[in-house]
Specification:
Elements: H1 2-10, H2 23-50, H3 57-62, H4 71-96, H5 101-123, H6 125-135, H7 157-180, H8 184-207, H9 217-224, H10 227-234, H11 239-273, H12 285-301, H13 305-310, E1 318-320, E2 327-329
Antiparallel strand pairs: 1-2
């Protein structure tokens, strides 16, 4: 019996498979795992990279959370991709539920936005575009009072080139999700996401300022305190360099945590949309017919020689003995 079941399954017979998921448990595990990973990345940067626990360049760069080719960057890009996939799934659910057109289009816009964000994070699109603007002279010379694009802005050029669009889409997303979320916990997570992203952008703005800019708080702290003595002894760096580095680390960590909060909110919303969510995967007719033909062929090959002889057709000049099923020549 066991052999028969195995052979049936191997011949392409379709079986119903049902996976049961404890939604609340999945969300708790995800939140705990991501927060733990984010804190671990900060610790590794502090000790391994900046503290030179392992004084090997490639290893230090791997754990340097400020680099785009580091482990922290990999976590950030991967999480953004998964959030984009979750948003596409939510959009598919809204279509299946025949939600209002405004809701379907809103989920579509947000899914497209995060799909672009995943590509942007991985390919460094906004950084590279800002670099092109700077190198071609379109940004002007802010230090010399140039009048080119973004010359009046004291920080990174990408803030001027991309932030208006990102900001408008972020506000639209925040407004839509606040009204779409059903529970207080989901709205709290959305609020945490928006607030964290705003803080991260603020930190990025300060990091892009020149050291002598009046708004550069890191210069003010390093000049007015004795932090430089401790950083020189602990890391061999100035107080300004150390503050700027860990400001970048904090910014990256806050960005990852913001996306984590949004991801958890989306999962809670999705699992709360319906008691059970079923996904049906259909197969094309051509594929099904090929599987059926292959199954019939395998079935015939598995028959005994005696069974095969019973279905042979006589050649010309041959006749079949009905009693024995044997072939005889006329």
């Amino acid at each position: 019996m066991a052999r028969s079941q195995h052979s049936d399954a191997s011949r392409g017979d379709l079986l119903d498979v049902r996976l049961s998921i404890d939604a609340d448990r999945v969300v708790r595990i995800l939140l705990f795992t991501m927060v733990t990973v984010e804190l671990l990345l900060v610790v590794l940067d502090y000790h391994v990279n900046y503290g030179r626990l392992i004084d090997l360049g490639p290893i230090r760069r791997l754990f340097n959370a400020t680099r785009e080719d580091s482990l922290a960057s990999f976590v950030a890009v991967t999480q953004t991709i998964l959030v984009a996939a979750s948003l596409w799934f939510v959009y598919a659910i809204s279509v299946a539920r025949q939600a209002a057109r405004r809701i379907r289009w809103s989920w579509l816009v947000i899914a497209l936005f995060f799909s672009y964000m995943a590509v942007d994070d991985g390919a460094l699109i906004h950084e590279r575009v800002a670099t092109v603007i700077d190198q071609t002279g379109a940004a002007g010379d802010s230090g010399a009072g140039g009048d080119g694009f973004g010359s009046w802005f004291p920080s990174y050029t990408w803030h001027v080139a991309f932030m208006p669009v990102f900001g408008l889409l972020g506000l639209y997303m925040a407004f839509f999700l606040w009204n779409e979320m059903r529970t207080r916990a989901e709205r709290l997570l959305v609020s945490v996401c928006v607030f964290s992203m705003a803080v991260a952008v603020g930190l990025d703005f300060v990091e892009g300022l020149e050291a002598d800019h009046p708004l550069n708080v890191y210069s003010a702290i390093s000049n007015s305190t004795a932090i430089g003595e401790w950083t020189a002894e602990r890391f061999g760096r100035s107080g300004f360099q150390t503050l700027r580095h860990f400001s970048k680390v904090l910014e990256e960590t806050i960005e990852i945590f913001a996306i984590t909060a949004l991801w958890v909110a989306l999962l809670k919303y999705t699992f709360g949309t319906a008691r059970n969510i079923s996904v049906s995967i259909s197969r094309s007719a051509g594929r099904s017919s090929r599987v059926s033909r292959r199954a019939r062929s395998d079935s015939q090959n598995d028959r005994s020689p005696k069974e095969n002889s019973a279905v042979l057709r006589p050649r010309r000049g041959m006749s079949t003995n009905r009693g024995t099923g044997a072939l005889s020549r006329d």
